[in-house]
Amino acid sequence: MSLFKLPGELPGGSSFFRFLVARAVAIVAYQMVSVAVGWQMYDITRKPLYLGMVGLVQFLPSLLLVLYTGHAADRYDRRKVISVAQSAEAAILLLLFLATWGGWIASEILFVLVFLVGVARAFEFTANQTMTPSIVSQEELPRALAIYGSVQQAAIITGPLLGGLVYAAGPDKVYGAAVILFFTSALLVSRLTIRQAPPAREPASLATIFAGFAYIRSRPVLLGAISLDLFAVLLGGATALLPIFARDILLASPQGLGCLRAAPAVGAFLASLCLARFPMKRRVGEIMFGAVACFGLATIGFALSRSLPLSVGLLAVLGGADMVSVVIRSSLVQLETPDEMRGRVSAVNGLFIGASNQLGEFESGVTAAWFGTVAATVIGGIGTLAVVAIWRQLFPQLAGRDALHGSPAEGPEEGELGGQCS
């Protein structure tokens, strides 16, 4: 029995298949652009600091617009939000193509255009997070999210490879290809068939805009799952330090660094294949805490490894454990949230994801400067294990969660939050 069946036999049928194709196309485009922008920025400036600033500029729109991206996803047809956002990304990248092709590109122009892409991407990301439950049934959602994760990881692996190959012909070629890919994705999304009617428009107010934060705050399972991932990745992430490990500790070539960077995505891809074939049905809370603990242990093992193959393997384990946690968290967020709230809740969830990745890289750099690369990574892994132990006590509802399926209409019991988060 094959893991990926014909489109008609997938969760959600052909509509979900088209959505997967659209997402894969958009992710490949974004990854290609990320490679090109990084190389081009360094070619122009020769300053490593500018590379870090690119990541910060990409994250800022998600932070600044978190209240509005979620509200837009809940107030308007999400297919239109995604299509308009991707069309805007394509138009901005067309400007970047012209600037590069015409020879008038500069670091300042790159920063401005990357920021504008980040603005459009913030709206696209939030609306995309809410689309799968609109296409598949609740019973099919965990498997659908696992399949989605497989496609996403495959695109994350493929995108940089294609970006590097096309960049050899010139960065303008990368941007030109991305324009076509984003427009293609926008067209596919605009023609999706969804199970639920577009959300009804409700008047904008401070209460509706902040509703995502309030909803998560009132649900210990959601708050625990989202914050567990935030602090675990914030402390345990070592991505920013991989060049140091490759060059100075493992004595590897640039190709070795490429293997290290690809390993977590490969592990995540394999884990998502397993989850799609064998969906989790029981003891999901224990599995999530176990996966995050495995993430921390793999981080410590990677820090202490002096063998490139072993390090690659440990990073793959790390990526696989992270994917298990991601699928559980994503399923809980979607299943525990009513459709009219999914945009705002997903916006907060997306902000936490971005914060854990970007601030995690900053934290890794600071602690590495203080304690050294190996010690900083070991400390991060130990910190992740400490978070697991503390969160089990703070969020017993999450630790004791048996099945993914729950009733989003049910609120917390009186006094359920106790002193956990007040």
UniProtKB/TrEMBL annotation:
Location of the protein in the cell: Cell membrane
Keywords of the record: Cell membrane, Membrane, Transmembrane, Transmembrane helix, Transport
CC terms in the record's Gene Ontology section: plasma membrane
Membrane-topology annotation of the record: Multi-pass membrane protein
Keyword Transmembrane helix: yes
Record's keyword annotation contains Mitochondrion: no
Entry's transmembrane regions: 20-42, 48-69, 104-123, 144-168, 174-194, 221-246, 252-275, 287-305, 368-391
UniProt cross-references to InterPro entries, sorted A to Z: MFS_trans_sf, TM_effector
Family annotation (Pfam families): MFS_3
Annotated protein name in UniProt: MFS transporter
Organism: Geomesophilobacter sediminis
